[in-house]
# Entry
Amino acid sequence: MSRITRQRLEAGDDITAASLNDRYDDYTQTDINLDNVADGAIDTAQMPSNAVLLYTQQDAIGTGDITFASYSTVNRTTASPPAQVTINNSEVAVNGSTGVTVSSGQVLRVYASLTCRSVPGVGFSAHSPTNMGVLRFQGYSSSTVSEVSYAAHGWLFRLEWDITSSALTDWEAVPGQGPFDSEWRSTGFDGEDVSDLSGTGLIPLCWAGSTEWDDGNPNLLLRKYQNTGWRTVTVSFIRVGSGETVYGVRLRCLGLVHPRNTASVNGLIVDTTSTFNGATPTLDYGPGNIALMHMREP
Amino acid sequence: MSYSPTAFVGGNTLQAATMKANDDALRAYLHGGIVTGDLQSSPAWVDTKHVSPPKFNPVRNVQHGVTGHLGGKVYQPDQWYTMTGASFTRRGRSDNNPVWSEIPNTAISFDLRGASTIIMHYHITAYVGCEDPGDTTRRVTVAPYYRAAETTNIAPYEAGACPIRQNYGPTGLTGFDPAHGGPAAPYNITGYGQRTGQYVLSGRVPGASGEVHVGLAHWSLTHVALVTSWSVCIEAYY
# Structure
């Protein structure tokens, strides 16, 4: 692109048909551009519709409906790399098989939500001595120990995309997110830095409650663990475009994860060792949705 | 392009009228004659700064935004809260037959100017329960809804619904260990939940204009739930 510059006619200049034509032919579609159009010179009516919002899509995902008469169950993984489950119907083709190309100056916004509940399992205890996140303090006598649990285990949800294949065969973690498939910082557990958790969401493994307080006494029957009940996990991801063509997005789940710190770095690791007093935690999920917006930056 | 000046041919007489006609055509074109097809779409280059305040057809490419409505508070006198509950919505309802009702004061009326795509984001915080420990169906489910006019029924989007459950369970509930508490179970949160969700109305409001309503509906299986705060964010693109 370049700015149109044509000198004014001066006395003594020759005027020919060609020079006149050039003068009137300066203005073509190519020349109506950043260099030759002033700010405020375009009326909104001169622009096509959807000039800002280029594309939207919304898909229902998951299993069943909100009565939860039917749902799907995800088992806790103790494998390495961890087993990861793709949420039913969540492999969403974007714009059919065409995809959307998110160019520079454009933005892709993806939002996903899913109803789910954590089921800790029969006999569950969050502060079983074999669990991560259990701290022990000396009790009121030298022979007693009080245990404190973080109750910080959770189920992780990850948004993935396919920017390679319209057949949706090349899924990968979205930028800014780790895939949770390799050992984290020599800890012996798979995991990722918390700085690599773009496009992820968490729900807790359990709810730890008390109907009344009695500090220091861990054995009153009025206190209990409870499953989390049906709730919703929400995942969002915003991407400033750099030319990727996004053919699909999907939502995956794995668990259990637990916070960890090593060498002053915070991370989430896949806990494959805690036994929870012999319980087998699972995750149930019902319906949800994925919404996608492709926009120009204003 | 709507601009097509007369081409001059060598050897012909140069007519003043022809030059004036070309000048007029060029002036008309540059002053309002540029049409959509003249603006290159690849790459698209028109930015916000290039667009003048609309003079006619002010709908196209106008983006409406509505955001930030506080639902209620419960911690001071004279401040109101919003309540949902089966006592006034559960009649005829069951846990396998959701029937939706609007949550009072959680809707935004929106003046649509024409066919558009609406994106709604919402958040709600509710305190549910406590009652009948052990009944796992005790929950409130919140869903976004769209209503085209006052006289039509709401249309909740159930795939975008979020349940909030009362956590207050019975002592010794099967599957859980009631024998641990105190420092091991440091939380005392009964049925409190904060949820977020989204709803895209793409192509569902073609031709709709005038006042429409976007808000939150609930299907309540508990006697009472307090909605302590909520917000709705709406984007509409024409």
Chain A has two domains: 1-47, 49-296. Chain A touches chain B through 95 residues (CB under 8 Å). Residues 1-47 of chain A form one domain. The first helix of chain A runs from residue 17 to 24.
